[in-house]
Automatic annotation (TrEMBL):
Native species: Butyricicoccus pullicaecorum
Protein name: Purine nucleoside phosphorylase
Coiled-coil region(s): none
Function: The purine nucleoside phosphorylases catalyze the phosphorolytic breakdown of the N-glycosidic bond in the beta-(deoxy)ribonucleoside molecules, with the formation of the corresponding free purine bases and pentose-1-phosphate. Cleaves guanosine, inosine, 2'-deoxyguanosine and 2'-deoxyinosine.
Any Pfam family the entry gives: PNP_UDP_1
UniProt GO molecular function: purine-nucleoside phosphorylase activity
Amino acid sequence: MYQNIQQKLLRSVNAIRKQTDFQPSVALVLGSGLGQYAEQMELVCEIPYDTIPDFPHSTVAGHDGRYLFGYVSGVPVVAMKGRVHYYEGYDISDVVLPIRVMGMLGAKTLVLTNAAGGIDPTFVPGDLMLITDQIASAVPSPLRGSNLAELGERFPDMSEIYDRALCEQIRKTASELGIALRGGVYVQTAGPNYETPAEIRSYRVAGASAVGMSTGCEAIAAKHMGMRICGISCITNMAAGILDQPLNHEEVQEVADRVRHTFQKLVTAVIGQLER
Ligand code: HPA
């Protein structure tokens, strides 16, 4: 298992290094709504996941999967257009493999984005939420199995996954741009089914403000490697039971699409302030 993960990581990095010597300082995961983010980048190279040996690629229809290498406001960035989710059936270590690869390519800061359901009843669909902490105990830890000591320690501290100083900087940036930014705890579920109202009530009592099916495990893997992390959720719907109406995937996509310009603007400004 351990050998297997290590080999996959090395094979992936080698395959990428055969195609580009680009040195990213920032890694970015593009969630729903940021699928068109390549428009904001001065692209240098694109590598489809299915050209990298053993690399997980999405099974969800219409989910493109590729790394984008390029510059955002002069900052060298590797972006993931498309991510794999635990609900697709991959082992959790495969789900986080693309994140670890970005760290191994040299990225020091990770910007995570996603679509999420609002649990905080003061949220409205279309809000953006800065992730301040997370609950990811509904999925296995991506660090399960032998420790990859080259990446990090066996029992890494998770008391500050989302870098406080970076969060403060992002709040300031949003305020300067006149973009309203909420804040809160993100809870990751295993999916693919949406949650029940009773589950959402339990997450609310536990302190969660938003729920989604990605990101938590990615942040743990990145923190293990010592990356500096921040995350922004696009609240695409109210979580189950908050409103008296069923949830659907189309609504999630519609709202993500509606907010995309504001979301793009914020992410670009945030990256522009990171060191090159
Ligand atoms: N639940 C889980 N994942 C989600 C949701 C939700 O309500 N909205 C967008 N992703």
